[in-house]
Amino acid sequence: LLIRRFEERLLELCDQGQVSGTSHLCIGQEACAVGVVAACRPDDWLVSHHRGHGHLLARGLDPNRMLAELLGRRTGYCGGKGGSQHLCSVPDFVLGTNGITGGGLPLAAGAALALQMRREPRIVLVFFGDGATNQGTFHETLNLSALWMLPVLFVCENNAYGMSNPCEKSIAGGGVVARAQAYGIRAAIADGMDVEAVSAAAAALQADVRSGHGPALLELKTYRHCGHSRNDRRIYRSREEEAAWLAKDCLVR
Asked: Which string of b and e fits 203-216 if b means at least 16 CB within 10 Å?
């Protein structure tokens, strides 16, 4: 609920011209952030993507400092210089949001390698969208992580569209889970609109990764009620489809 209200207020500020640039909202996807982060340790590293406000709020970052950052104020987490796309807080073990599709994946592998070399009993969580699974960084990172048995949990928030492109027209090979399994990585699917289902699935995979069994991937089937960004009119999907997903909204459930 905090994430939903935060982003609704952010949208108002964007419309008023108080936030520079664009914003990518996770309205509808809140259960993904809350369920996964609730199942991990507070000192596990977290790597986010361009739609990352929910992940950071779920980790416990101060919404006032986050909003100050988005407004370009010095009291923000990055002194107002990072904004929405590059918001990080190392003291909170957050390596940041990322404005590049799939850009956080290799960063997560690097952090996981550091934990492995230091023999620290922690893991890395990295969130990304379905569109990122078509990037080279996805395949390179999964390949290396599997070879080196890195302690990283890959979390794909599959909201059915990469910008305006539906998954069935962009992802070959049987889907995201099949791609992970091709690299010998354990993978599971959960209902991303059900916070309890997300938390249970994340807890099981995180326990496996933490015990030294190498990386794992969790695909969350979810939906963004808003557009890709604030300027997206959503002409590529029907209002009937949106209504069906709104009936399954995580807050309602």
From this structure: eebbebbbeeebbb
| Concatenated DSSP letters of 118-168 | HT-S--EEEEEEGGGGGSHHHHHHHHHHHHHT--EEEEEEE-SEETTEEGG
CB-based contact 29:54 (threshold 8 Å): yes
Distance CA(42)–CA(40), nearest Å, equals 7
- Structure confidence by residue, pLDDT tens digits, 68-101: 999 999 999 999 999 989 999 999 999 999 999 9
Q: Which two tokens stand for residue 147?
A: 């070879």
Which residues fall within 8 angstroms of residue 159, CB to CB, at 6 or more apart?
A: 28, 29, 129, 130, 192, 222, 223, 224
Query: In the block, which residue shows the tokens 């390949």?
Result: 143
CA gap 73, 79 in Å, rounded: 6
CA 250 to the chain's CA centroid: 16
Q: What is the DSSP string of 169-229?
A: GT--TT-HHHHHHHTT-EEEEEETT-HHHHHHHHHHHHHHHHTTS--EEEEEE---SS-SS
Q: Provide the β-strand partners of residue 125.
A: 46, 153
Of 52, 127, 115, 54, the C-alpha closest to 87 is: 52
pLDDT 10s digits, 187-237? 999 999 999 999 999 999 999 999 999 999 999 999 988 877 777 778 788
* Paired residues of 194 in beta bridges: none
